[in-house]
Specification:
Arc Repressor Mutant, subunit A; single chain; alpha+beta; 6-stranded antiparallel β-sheet; binds beta-D-fucopyranose; 4-stranded antiparallel β-sheet; globular
């Protein structure tokens, strides 16, 4: 597995104290009345990434009082960053099994992350029939298996399956057919992604999409769930991980390709977001089975990377 934990940290994502400082974690939480997991998940300020979850057995309860609602098999929930988490087994149900995926989204996923039906920012949807429930259940399972397989590209393959899951959720919500994400925000994302190495300011991006900086900041946060600077940092880390993983570029070069002139600063941000420093991250990924390091020439050096960032669909995937 490619997630890196510090010594002494909680290693079981089902228990409180686990650090979700990574890009994708998937699991299933089997809550049985009076069992070890029979407690309410209570995260007042939510998490820094998104969570999607699906009830597969029994009944869950989300929130309390007027906001309370229940989820049954085939119900999906989407918690955006910082939305409160408060959920557990419904008191009238002997169990609640739910599958879940924690993730930091890729930039162009934004349109699939705006769910219509929301309670306290938590998106909800219900699958219309058993066939769909089976399909979605299998997708969740595949994501979990893929991410846990410990192969060199497990995380990327799991993200790829997750993208499919999010698109399917979007497709299966009839109200989603109109009113897509604001095209200026989509363009802002593309513009930032194409220029990750440049230090674009909020003003630069605002000018590019013909909005005032304050309007852009507001709309961006509204539609993407995080602010623009934080979003770019996530995209930079995704690209940095990819470059560390697939090239032999020195860390300083990776840093500058993703927009950090100061390697030390880059390493600090990387460590904070990914959970290990860039060299350890690279060492671990090299030590994993089926290494397939892409030779530098493949990238065509710096010019190749620049071209990639300009034209290649790969760039859209970071
Ligand atoms: C587990 C919970 C699950 C999800 C993940 C992120 O502990 O059981 O619902 O919130 O954490």
């Amino acid at each position: 597995m490619r997630h890196h934990q510090e010594a002494g940290q909680q290693l079981n994502p089902l228990l409180p104290g686990y650090s979700f400082n990574i890009y994708l974690v998937a699991g299933m939480t089997p809550i049985i009345e009076n069992g070890p997991l029979d407690f309410y998940i209570d995260r007042k300020n939510g998490m820094s990434g998104f969570i999607i979850n699906m009830t597969v057995q029994g009944r869950g309860k989300v929130f309390e009082g007027d906001d309370a609602f229940y989820c049954n098999p085939g119900d999906l929930l989407l918690f955006p960053p910082e939305a409160r988490h408060f959920y557990g087994r419904a008191p009238d149900s002997p169990d609640w099994y739910h599958r879940w995926v924690y993730f930091r989204p890729r930039g162009f996923w934004a349109p699939w992350l705006q769910w219509r039906d929301q309670v306290n920012k938590v998106g909800r949807m219900t699958l219309a029939n058993e066939t769909l429930v089976a399909e979605f259940d299998a997708l969740f399972q595949q994501i979990e298996e893929t991410y846990k397989a410990g192969r060199r590209s497990s995380e990327e393959l799991a993200l790829n399956l997750l993208e499919r899951l999010l698109i399917r959720c979007f497709e299966e919500t009839p109200e989603n057919s109109n009113d897509p994400i604001d095209p200026r925000i989509e363009e802002a994302c593309q513009h930032i992604s194409r220029n990750l190495a440049a230090d674009l300011t909020l003003e630069d991006v605002a000018r590019h999409v013909c909005l005032s900086p304050s309007r852009l900041a507001h709309l961006f946060r509204d539609q993407m769930g995080v602010n623009l600077v934080r979003w770019r940092e996530d995209q930079r880390m995704i690209l940095a991980k990819h470059l560390l993983h697939a090239t032999r570029f020195p860390v300083a070069r990776v840093a500058s390709l993703v927009g950090y002139d100061d390697q030390m600063y880059f390493s600090r941000v990387f460590r904070k977001r990914v959970g290990s420093c860039p060299t350890d991250f690279r060492r671990t990924s090299e030590a994993s089975p089926a290494p397939c390091v892409v030779p530098d020439e493949f990238w065509g050096g710096e010019a190749g990377i620049a071209a990639l960032q300009e034209n290649d669909p790969f760039q859209e995937s970071v």
